[in-house]
Design a protein that fits this description.
This is dTDP-glucose 4,6-dehydratase. Helices cover 40% and strands 17% of the residues. Helix 7 crosses helix 9 and helix 9 packs across helix 11.
């Protein structure tokens, strides 16, 4: 594949101290020598400068603490930096939190996104065409990172998964992925109607539609990617996989909603970052792409695989037993406890990434069994990070790390 056309580009990465945003920052700095990144993050519970501690020492990166809803702050960033690409990761994202407090999700995910676009539109506009539409500086684009949850819920048609048969064009590219499975007849495509079911997914759907409306009304240059469930290093330990890892090591019960039979499609975070990079760099404006993992699995099986993998690592490599707060013999399925199901819990998500595979040559390279072991080993090797983010000392991290620069 040709080298991406991003030499000398400046990116505004919102939410760049959060899980996916931080991994994107790491990916981009490692891959490209001649780029600049401006990271904007509010540093709430899920944003932590410890996640990009080493990256902040790099002269190619600047950090701004603040809210994407703050018009003056965002305008100041555009005045100080010639921003080529806005990559919008900033969002309230935990469904359970959205059920408890919907309003903050609407403010950040909808109004914050609109604020970013309005500022970008104003700074990128250099005139009007004969029909009154804005004319933008060349090479500018707003990339909005969305979620498969905007599509709603798919039916779970099979209790025992069936083989997932890929299209011939996809098989030719995704040669490294074998033994794929599915729990249903249908998958989400880019043409699937938007049908959100929670305050979180409704706020993301609204932000998607605001982005698309700017494309129609102002011919604003944008792309949207919609991803399946991400997992990997630096994931805040309230989401399923990092929470399960943390609780297993502590010998605590593992809460599983309902019967644990809800199905999710899991995407290793660095595979996602690669897909975002390709869409930003190689795709014309106004295109939307699904980025999925070909990794459908029931939640209960995810929990059991995590237990099995940790138990095996502990037995094969006793050095890791020092991180246990329980006896090794206690790491078994007895830790699983079933709790009342989440309100409006979607049955199944499954993304069809055929468009990005066939048009851009991207595919999810990481099988789940490989990705989950890499993720577990990262958490075993980074217990200090887990302990510090769990205590919520975000301001302390900000003061300590930012002042080191």
């Amino acid at each position: 594949m040709d080298e991406y056309l991003n030499v000398g580009k400046t990116y505004l990465v919102t939410g760049g101290a959060g899980f996916i945003g931080a991994n994107f920052v790491k990916y981009m700095l490692e891959k490209y020598a001649d780029i600049k990144l401006v990271v904007l993050d509010k540093l709430t519970y899920a944003g932590n400068l410890g996640t990009i501690r080493e990256e902040l020492k790099d002269s190619r990166i600047s950090f701004v603490k603040g809210d994407i809803c703050n018009r003056e702050l965002v305008e100041n960033i555009f005045m100080q930096h010639d921003i080529d690409y806005v990559v919008n990761f900033a969002a309230e994202s935990h469904v359970d939190r959205s059920i408890e407090n919907p309003q903050i999700f609407l403010e950040t995910n909808i109004l914050g996104t609109q604020n970013l676009m309005e500022v970008a539109k104003n700074f990128w506009t250099i005139g009007k065409d004969s029909n009154g539409y804005p004319i933008y500086k060349e090479g500018k684009k707003f990339h909005h990172v969305s979620t498969d949850e905007v599509y709603g819920s798919l039916s779970k048609d099979f209790d025992i998964p069936k083989e997932l048969i890929l299209d011939e064009a996809v098989r030719k590219i995704a040669t490294g992925r074998k033994n794929l499975q599915t729990y249903g007849e249908k998958m989400f495509t880019e043409s699937t109607p938007l049908d959100p079911r929670s305050p979180y997914s409704a706020s993301k759907t609204a932000s998607d539609m605001i982005v698309m409306s700017y494309g129609e009304t102002y011919k604003f240059p944008f792309n949207i990617t919609r991803c399946s469930n991400n997992y990997g290093p630096y994931h805040f330990p309230e989401k399923l996989i990092p929470l399960i890892i943390k609780n297993i090591l502590a010998g605590k019960k593992l809460p599983v909603y309902g019967k644990g039979d809800n199905v999710r499609d899991w995407l290793y975070v660095m595979d996602h970052c690669k897909g975002i990079d390709m869409v930003i760099s190689k795709v014309e404006a106004h295109e939307i792409y699904n980025i999925g993992g070909f990794n459908e699995e029931q939640n209960i099986n995810i929990v059991k695989l995590t237990i099995d993998t940790i138990a095996r690592i502990m037995k094969e490599e006793p050095k890791y037993q020092s991180v246990l707060s329980t006896d090794l013999s206690n790491i078994n399925y007895d830790l699983i406890t079933y709790v009342q199901d989440r309100l409006g819990h979607d049955s199944r998500y499954a993304i069809d990434p055929t468009k990005i595979v066939t048009e851009l040559g991207w595919y999810p390279e990481t099988p789940f069994t490989e990705g989950i072991e890499k993720t577990i080993r990262w958490y075993l090797d980074n217990q200090e990070w887990v302990a510090e983010v769990t205590t919520g000392d975000y301001q302390g991290y900000y003061d300590k790390i930012y002042k080191e620069r």
